[in-house]
């Protein structure tokens, strides 16, 4: 509601950003000013600063998560809300990922066995996705590096490779269909090599054949039978960016924390 009377004295209005449309009329009444809507430089700066703070907070939480799990095999996933509902980016998913933490029983049993058995060691565990040129799925290799002390090289004496195909079934879910298990990349220790081919004796053809057989040995175990439904599982990829991957095995199979790793060469 406008005032019925107004003084002829016009006090300067506070500074505003925008373009003045109408000037003060000459009828003696207080001027009415209109301004076009335009974001001030301050508002634009605040928006950019908020985006930067959000990115910093995200990186901080990722760092804190890795610190929390670096000395234990149990931890807490705290980043899942950042990209919940967003579709899976297969270009980002493609590549090699190193396991930093898991609560999955089928993986923890490996660490528990290594803790109890002096002749068994578990090294690094990886997942390798091949899906860059796909739109609805791809292939994935679960890679476990293991060893038998004194017979094979420490922690990386052999490789357990579980291969699977996966398909995208919803925005954040993939279904894995396991195909086969491979035992390969055997690297014998210096002690075993010296036992097979002593340095003080000339290497015979037989001893060289034994070394070559061990290094090239590869055992393949099919997981699925022809005409039958193979072993599979549903996984929820709860977070994915350029250097971190979080996932859950649907049905209580545990959580996984991965970080980007260098490509594996088999």
Automatic annotation (TrEMBL):
It holds the Pfam family PAP_fibrillin. It is found in: Plastid. Residues 88-258 form the Plastid lipid-associated protein/fibrillin conserved domain. InterPro entries: PAP, PAP/fibrillin_dom. Keywords: Plastid, Transit peptide. GO terms for cellular component: plastid. It comes from the Eukaryota. Belongs to the PAP/fibrillin family. PANTHER family: PLASTID-LIPID-ASSOCIATED PROTEIN 4, CHLOROPLASTIC-RELATED. This is Plastid lipid-associated protein/fibrillin conserved domain-containing protein. It comes from Punica granatum (Pomegranate).
């Amino acid at each position: 509601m406008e005032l019925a009377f107004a003084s002829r004295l016009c006090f300067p209005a506070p500074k505003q950003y925008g373009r003045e449309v109408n000037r003060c009329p000459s009828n003696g009444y207080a001027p009415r000013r209109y301004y076009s809507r335009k974001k001030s430089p301050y508002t634009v700066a605040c928006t950019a600063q908020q985006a930067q703070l959000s990115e910093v907070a995200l990186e901080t939480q990722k760092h804190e998560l890795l610190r929390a799990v670096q000395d234990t095999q149990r931890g807490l996933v705290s980043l899942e809300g950042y990209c919940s509902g967003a579709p899976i980016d297969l270009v980002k998913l493609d590549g090699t990922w190193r396991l930093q933490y898991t609560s999955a029983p089928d993986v923890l049993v490996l660490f528990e066995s290594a803790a109890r058995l002096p002749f068994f060691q578990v090294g690094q565990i990886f997942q390798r996705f091949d899906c860059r040129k796909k739109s609805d799925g791809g292939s994935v290799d679960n890679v476990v590096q293991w060893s038998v002390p004194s017979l094979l090289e420490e922690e990386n004496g052999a490789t357990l490779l579980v291969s699977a195909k996966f398909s995208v079934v919803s925005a954040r879910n993939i279904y894995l269909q396991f195909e086969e298990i491979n035992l390969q990349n055997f690297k014998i220790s210096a002690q075993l090599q010296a036992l097979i081919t002593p340095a003080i004796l000339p290497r015979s053809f037989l001893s060289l054949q034994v070394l070559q057989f061990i290094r090239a040995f590869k055992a393949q175990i099919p997981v699925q039978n022809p005409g039958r439904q193979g072993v599979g599982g549903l996984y929820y990829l709860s977070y994915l960016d350029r250097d971190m991957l979080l996932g859950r095995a649907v049905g209580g199979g545990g959580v996984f924390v991965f970080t980007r790793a260098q490509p594996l060469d088999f």
